[in-house]
Amino acid sequence: MLDQILSTLWTVARHVSLLLVILLLYFFILFNNPQGIDIVEEVLINKKYWAWTIFALISFGVSLWFCSFFVLQLKEISSDQRFLKHYREGVKFWIVAIPRILGIVPFVSLLFKTSLYSGSSIWFLLILFVTVFILAIIQEELVVVLEKQVINVRWFDEISPEKKTLGSLLYFRGFRAMFYGFLGYIFLLFILSVTSVETGFATTVGPFAVMIFGLSFLSLIFSLVMYFNLPGRRPFILYFAALIVVCGIVNDNTKIRTLPMKSTRLTLESDFRSWAEQLIALRGAAQKLELKDSVKSDSLAIYFPRLGRPCCVPVDLTDSAIVGIRLREDSILVHRKTVVNESFVREIPVIFVAAEGGGIRALIWTALILANLEKRFPGMYKSIYGISGVSGGGVGASFYISYLYDQLKRDRKIDANEAAFHKAVKADFLSDLLAGFLFQDNLQNILPVGIEGFNRTRQLEDAWSKSFSANTNSFTMNRGFLRLYADAKMRIPRLFINGVLAESGQKTIVSFPMLRNDSLKSISKPDVFADELDVIEAINKDIPVKTVASLCSRFPYITSGGLICGEGGGRIGKIVDGGYKENTGLETVWQLILRLRPVFKDLHKIHQKENIRFKPIVIFIKNSLETKTMDMKNTHSIVLSEALLPLGAASKASDRKTPTLSALTENVFKYYDEKGSDSLSCEFIQVELDRSTEQGYRLPLGWYFSEASFNYIDTLVANRFKKSDHTFDRLRPYFLKE
Question: 709 CB contacts (<8 Å, ≥6 apart)?
């Protein structure tokens, strides 16, 4: 019998090989993927997901059993009749055993998940296996009852190595009920996936359950492929692959959402000049001092409108060397002449923010840092000209800018600790994306026409806007991007959302100011934005805020590229994740500062009598690993080392871009001074997410954060803004603390 079993294993198992691929994917998510590990651990901690996860696991096991059973009964196991006759018992053994083995593997594999054996998590394991055990008993008893219910009526056919037809199986009531019940279940899952954002189905069951439901759906699809595939005679798998390729030519559903253009855009220089003139006026008004009666003969009483009380500064009013008084956070500096003809310089900060990519990790870190900066230095947003965001950093910046816009529109205080804002950025964005990815977007691959509603990236965009509107009672993320800047008095920081045009490798930028400047062609200096694609200019349409956010964070294969078309409908190309080219956002900041340098100098000349100088400040919001941590985690692959070497090299080289560009930026800004220039040097401030701990290292890159992961980042943000932290000391001279 052992010879029978060993000799027939591959002959039978090859017919369900694609189901083994699904199981390998399940193992990878369960044990070897940071995002998968995080969502599994969230299931163990968050008991609201337990019931749905148990149901999903049972349905996955049943799906594997059902699909493998029907395929092995409906297919000809081997065309060699002599082989089947000689090894009949072995073939029959595997036809019975393989479906059962596949059906229990999802449960048995959980026994190797060590985190299940700590705290309340072990109760999830116990409940799961007790439920499965009870259901198995119920199933056995149900079969007995059904067989006895009607005399001489068979509910199930006998399992045998011979090929059977679907009609012969459906003749039996039990098989018929199972078949139509399973198809109805899969159809229901598909409908729920298509409407997951509207119904809230995906976020209710949780990302792990959605993933398992999706694997159940794929089990059916792969089983159909295996059913029609005949090894050596009819390679239907190749035909199926060819169908996907052919349909892919005409069924593209990745065109981005657009809106009619209703706003006028200014060139970068014109926009900045107008913005800077307003800043000069605002800073002048904020620092205006009102003289009151002297408290002492040798003191000057200075009234702070924001503090609401007079402050006394000992000063000799007859001293002709006094040229100005400057406000600081908790003191007043009296400036005196030390050199003949030296004048007091008013430093006005112009801030540029670079937000590094990194999925939801970057989203949350960026959004919370920006909100807390505003809390620490009230009114700071008025001095931020641009925020350059890549991938998750760009999405986090979009959330913050939408929130800032709403608060200013409603004339409300910007509260960094507002529960609504926290809930908006830490919501489950993965479940709806997974539902689209595993269900309708897979079906889209074999359809001859593109259905835009089947695009998974749109479901991710809708998940962002739904979370934002549900928690802040605002639909700003659904509205046009250019609308944010319709009222110049609101002084919303300009977003520069960085993507990559896949076909050309160009960096794409979505921004309010136009990047093109024809006047630069007439001078010798090249335009630093000459190779960049201004998306709004190219398509001549406005774009919803949520879609703008996605145009820097479309990371294939998780999300799809975003197709942009010209004004006449011609295809320009597909935009993918900006991290493919440069993941820090610092490159765009460099370009902005270089392009605006002549404007800085021109404004200095115009305001020469007022002794005004602009102080560029770059804040880099970083979330990637430190070089030391990367070196500690460095491992050498011994399995398929040559095959995996190019992928590993590309991945590691990409990770190393951040420390190199960050160090380059800091050193150039810190140590380089242009001789003979009266321009002020540029400050560089890096706000780094500590990922040196085990918890920090394991922070996932996807679109879902467990409560533990969010709390880790939230605590780091709180610690970063304590008085003992000196990260923002260089900002204090420019902003009063409320």
Answer: 38, 361, 695, 699, 700
Residue 641's pLDDT is: 54
Q: CA-CA distance, 96 to 161, in Å (whole number)? A: 10
**pLDDT of the residue at 671:** 61
Query: Cα 70 from chain centroid?
Result: 40
pLDDT above 50 (res 534): yes
What is the DSSP annotation of 5-37?
HHHHHHHHHGGGHHHHHHHHHHHHHHHS-HHHH
What span, in angstroms and rounded, lies between the C-alpha atoms of 25 and 718?
Answer: 38
- d(CA 517, CA 528) in angstroms, rounded, equals 11
pLDDT of residue 679: 66
Closest CA to 509 of 528, 527, 529, 525: 529
Tell me how far apart the alpha carbons of residues 57 and 73 are, in angstroms, rounded to a whole number: 24
Q: Strand 612-622 relative to strand 683-688: parallel, antiparallel, unpaired?
A: parallel
Give Cα separations from 423 to 15, 353, 368, 372, 716 (angstroms).
47, 24, 11, 15, 17
Contact 454, 445 (CB under 8 A): no
Number of Cβ within a 10 Å radius of residue 201: 22
What's the rounded Cα separation, in Å, for the pair 533 and 394?
A: 17
Produce one character per residue of 340-355: b if its CB has 16 or more CB atoms within 10 Å, e if not: eeeeebbebbbbbbbb
440 DSSP assignment = I
The closest of 134, 160, 151 to 74, measured between CA atoms, is 160
- Helices (DSSP H) in 75-200: which residue ranges? 81-86, 88-108, 121-149, 166-170, 173-194, 196-199
Nearest to 288 by CA among 336, 319, 326, 330: 326
Q: How confident is the model at residue 672 (pLDDT cuts 50, 70, 90)?
A: low
For the chain, the distance separating the N- and C-terminal CA atoms, rounded to the nearest angstrom, is 83
Tens digit of pLDDT for each residue in 125-184? 888 888 888 888 887 777 677 666 655 666 777 777 778 888 888 888 888 888 999 999
* 334-362 mean pLDDT: 72
What confidence score (pLDDT) does residue 302 get?
41
CA distance 440 to 451: 9
Q: Are 495 and 591 in contact (CB under 8 A)?
A: no
What distance in Å separates the CA atoms of residue 687 and residue 115, rounded to the nearest whole number? 32
Helix axis angle for 2-13 and 88-108, nearest 10°, is 70
The residues facing 334 across adjacent strands are 325
How far, CA to CA in Å, does 417 sit from each of 368, 623, 723? 9, 20, 17
The rounded distance, in Å, linking the Cα atoms of 498 and 356 is 11
Structure tokens at 425: 């950025």
Q: What's the whole-model pTM score? A: 0.84
Amino acid occupying residue 494: R
- Residue-wise DSSP of 496-511: EEEEEETTT--EEEE-
Per the rule left: phi > 0, alpha: psi between -120 and 50, beta: everything else, 476 is alpha
Q: Residue 150 CB: number of other CB atoms within 10 A?
A: 10
- Tell me if residue 614 falls in helix, strand or coil: strand
Task: Specify the pairing of strand 507-510 against strand 533-534.
Answer: parallel
Instruction: Using DSSP bridges, classify how beta strands 299-304 and 290-291 pair: parallel, antiparallel or unpaired.
Output: antiparallel
Report yes or no: 534 and 267 within 8 Å, Cβ to Cβ: no
- Alpha-carbon dihedral sign for residues 711, 712, 715, 720: negative
**Sign of the dihedral through C-alpha 16, 19, 23, 29:** positive
Report pLDDT digits (tens) over 387-431.
999 999 999 999 999 999 999 998 887 775 688 999 999 999 999
Per-residue pLDDT tens for 44-85?
Answer: 778 889 999 999 999 999 999 999 999 998 888 888 888 888
